[in-house]
Structures are given as structure tokens and as C-alpha cells.
Amino acid sequence: xxxxxxxxxxxxxxxxxxxxxxxxxxxxxxxxxxxxxxxxxxxxxxxxxxxxxxxxxxxxxxxxxxxxxxxxxxxxxxxxxxxxxxxxxxxxxxxxxxxxxxxxxxxxxxxxxxxxxxxxxxxxxxxxxxxxxxxxxxxxxxxxxxxxxxxxxxxxxxxxxxxxxxxxxxxxxxxxxxxxxxxxxxxxxxxxxxxxxxx
Length: 199
What we know:
Blueprint: H1 3-47, E1 64-69, E2 75-78, E3 84-89, E4 94-97, E5 103-107, E6 113-118, E7 124-128, E8 132-137, E9 140-149, E10 157-160, E11 168-179, E12 194-198
Antiparallel strand pairs: 1-6, 2-5, 3-4, 3-11, 6-11, 7-10, 7-12, 8-9, 9-11
């Protein structure tokens, strides 16, 4: 056998051996990768934690607000050539007329408005939507302003704590009527929204 033929056979053998080594090496590497991934997966699950989240919901009675009495200035006689004012004090439920003698009580029963509120044991904030309300009589108007809750200086916002047990209370509301010179006679009506919310 010639030297060249022998050398060629040896080279073929060497290639086969190298190929087998490469395949074995690749298999070993793949196995190591799979094992490493499995170990990482198991480690991740080994350090995972769980917790139970408590959930709570407390339900309370919604606020109920009703009008107990209307804010009523009674019947006032006007002096047409002068403006005038009359005030209802909510604390003592009484009408006071200005010193200018442009208005006088001619009848009716003036009284503070009064709200009755019922809810839960939480404090309740009361507020008036308007600081000035215009009562109407056809196209004519008269102004009501200076609203006050509970007292003559109470203002238009206040927080109340309900009575234990019944969780209810009443809120008197006073205001001032302001007539102008040449005010037209008639019955004037209007309203103001009032809000109540838990605090």
C-alpha cells in the first residue's frame, strides 16, 4: 500500500474520532444547560413566598336629610321708597327687623328653616350650596343672603357629631331678606341646596 493511501486512511480516522468527540461534547454541554435550568427553577421555587391578604368592608347607614320646617320670613309690610332688611336668628328662632323702619311684620309666623339629619356615628359636614338666593315673583326678585347654621354667626358650613344611639340631629338655618327701593308686592319663593357628607 502506498504511503499516500495510508495517510488518507489515517486522516479519515482522525476526522471520525474528532466528530465523535464534538458530538459527545455538545451532548454534555446540553445536559449541563438543562440541569442548570432545572436547578435555577427549583431554587426559584424554593425561595418563593406566599401571604394571605385580609379584606374587610364596613357598611353603614347612608345619611338621610329631610326638611323639618321651611325658612319663612312671614308677611312683611314695606315702605316703597326705602330699602330694608329683616333677619331670622336660627338659634332663638326669631325675626329681627332693621332700625330704618322700612319693614314691619304684618302677619304670618316667621321661623328659621330646620333640617333633620340621621346617619351613623361619624361626624357629618353640612354646607349650603348658595350664599345668595334670589326669590322670584314672576319676573321680580328679592335677595336672601347671610345664611347661618345654628347661630347668628354660624356661617354656611359646619360639622356635627350625631347623638349616640339615635345618630340624629337637627340643624336650624337663618338668613337675611333684603328688599330694595320700589320692591314689588307679592309672594316670593325660591330654594337653596344643602349638602351633607360623612367626615
